[in-house]
Each structure stands twice: as C-alpha cells, then as structure tokens.
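Q: I have 226 residues here and want to know how they pack in 3D. Can you give me a structure?
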Amino acid sequence: MQVLYEDNHIIIVNKAPGEIVQGDKTGDEPLVETLKQWIKEKYNKPGNVFCGVVHRLDRPVAGVVVFAKTSKALARLNDMFRNGQVHKTYWAISRNRPPKSEDILTHYITTVERNNKSYASLTPKSGAKEARLTYRHIASSERYHLLEVNLMTGRKHQIRVQLSSIGCPIKGDLKYGDKRSNPDGSISLMARHIEFEHPVSHELISVTAPIPNDVLWQALTENINN
C-alpha cells in the first residue's frame, strides 16, 4: 500500500492488483482495514479508527483509491461520486487496437450476480443501466495498445465490458474475452488519475498513481507526457 495524499479528512492510496478494498467472502484482509491499522500506528490513536470507503476498484485492478478519515468527508464524497463531480481517468492495455482513435461509447449494462459478470447491449433492456465513457488511443507497441478512458457513469465492470464489446478486451481479463491471464492474476487496467474539489477545504485535489513496475507498462508509457 502506497499513500499518495493525506490530510485531516481524506487519504488517497495506490492500490496494488490483488488487494480488495472492502471485505468479501474470501475473508482476505481488505485495504480499508490495512489503512485503519496504518493510521492507528502512525498517529498512536487509541480505540477504533474511522476510515470510510468512498468507492472501489475491482480486485485485479491497480491505482488510485480515495478513503474518508471523517464522517463529514465521507458523506460529502459519497454525494460527489454519486453526482458525477469526481473526474476519474483510467489507463488500459489491450492486444487489439480500437476501431477509432477516440470515441464515446454508450451501452446498457446488465449485471448477473450469480457469475459476477456484466453484459453490455447497444439497446435499452429491462433492468439495464446506461453506461457511458470516452476513450482515446495514446500509445502502441508491436503487440499492445494503451487506451486512456474517462468514465461518465460508474457501472460494475464498466470499462472491462465496454472495451470488450468493441473488440478490445483488457490484457489478462479472461472474464471479458482476453486469451491469456497475466502471471500475477492482475488485469492491465489502472485507475491512473483522480481530480475533485476537496469536500471540506474546497481546494482542487489532483492525484496521479505511478506507472506499475512492469516491463510492458513502462515500455508503453515511456514517451507519454502526462
């Protein structure tokens, strides 16, 4: 766990692939509990430490995650995420080049809890939620392509299923159509950047996660000025 930003109200960390943000049926220690212990030890806090989960990343995804250190910040951040006042940028690697260098994708997503999978349709369906994102192609190597994605809505597995639907499954994402898994069980998707107005001070918070220490990520991003 790497802390990217911290003040009295919020803490932003760089999640490693494989970590879970909140507890689930696996029983593995979630990032929120690791963070509580870290805060407790850093500030010698007696008793319970408050740390609120504002949003989540899928387990195999790396990158920026925001947590609230006060109940006031948690309530306000929850509203901001719900109302689309938080700007999130993701980077994804695909084996396939998208049909257009940049585009807006609109689908209608249905999630089946039984197999924890989302399905995208181009037309509205009963129970489906509209999902929108923009992407642009920003780099290529001999075999792989790097896409920058900006979410306009927040649906389960949205980036994964929408990119797969245009023939660009994310590298390592067997669930959504890639051919091979990554050796570490990750998928090549990261929450690269987040920007929002601080819920208490109203200053602009802008945080970028470092590029993963991985040969392919490094090769694809070495000539990008971001």
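Q: Anything worth noting?
A: The two ends are 23 Å apart (CA to CA). The mean pLDDT is 95.
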